[in-house]
Amino acid sequence: MKNVTDSFLSLSYWPSAGSFGFNTDILATNPINLSVVFGVLIFFGKGVLSDLLDNRKQRILNTIRNSEELCGGAVEQLEKARARLRKVEMEADQFRVNGYSEIEREKLNFINSTYKTLEQLENYKNETIHFEQQRTINQVRQRVFQQALQGALGTLNSCLNNELHLRTISANIGMFGAMKEITD
Q1: Which ranges form a coiled coil (predicted)?
Q2: Spatial distance between the Cα atoms of 20 and 11, rounded to a whole number of angstroms
Q3: Which residues 6+ apart lie within 8 Å of 14 measured at CB?
Q4: Confidence class of residue 14 from pLDDT cuts 50, 70 and 90?
Q5: Average pLDDT of the residues in 54-70
Q6: Which of 88, 77, 180 is nearest to 138 (CA)?
Q7: Please, are residues 179 and 145 in contact by the beta-carbon 8 Å criterion?
Q8: Over 70: is that where the pLDDT of 19 sits?
Q9: CA distance 96 to 40
Q10: Which among 11, 61, 65, 88 is most buried, taking Cβ atoms within 10 Å?
């Protein structure tokens, strides 16, 4: 054992530059001084350290409390938002159903109005055709009458003398005027 101690003591004689070793001299290492310093630090620093730790603990607790309050508020807002979302989804479904119903109703109304419009157009077409037929018939009657009248006048002109001819013309003009008033 003495050899080991001597080897450590011999290390202390070496130059300090670049050397490493253990110093076994208790007074040289100042363990008593170090223990006194540590004791003083612990005795007086205990209160400061305790206060620092208490302050830190209070800050952490306050942060946790605030976080829990914020979390509770966030959960409450989330529930409100979910309730609003459900309400909006129900309203959207209702609008969708009402929209489809409204579209079907408008479609039926459009089909009905188109059908009525087509019926009216068909009636107008039939009335126009009937009117044109009547007008054409009247024109044909007038032409036939005029041709018959001209034929009769031609026959009368060849058979009648001037006096009889003038009376017949006057009578025919009167008849023609009366017929024209009837047709108009």
Answers
A1: 71-98
A2: 8
A3: 21
A4: very low
A5: 92
A6: 180
A7: yes
A8: no
A9: 81
A10: 11
Q: What are phi and psi of 20, to 5 degrees?
A: -135, 145
Which 3-state string (H, E, C) describes 1-30? CHHHHHHHHHHHCCCCCCCCCCCCCHHHHC
With pLDDT > 90 as the criterion, what percentage of the chain qualifies?
Answer: 36
CA distance 43 to 60: 26
Please compute Rg for the chain using Cα positions. 65
Using one digit for the tens of pLDDT, what is the confidence trace for 78-110? 999 999 999 999 998 888 888 788 888 888 999
Dihedral sign of CA atoms 102, 105, 108, 112 in order? negative
Evaluate if pTM is beyond 0.70.
no
Mean pLDDT of 9-22: 54
Distance (Å, rounded) from C-alpha 153 to C-alpha 173?
A: 11
Pair of tokens at residue 72: 């509770």
Residue where the block lists tokens 């070496």:
14
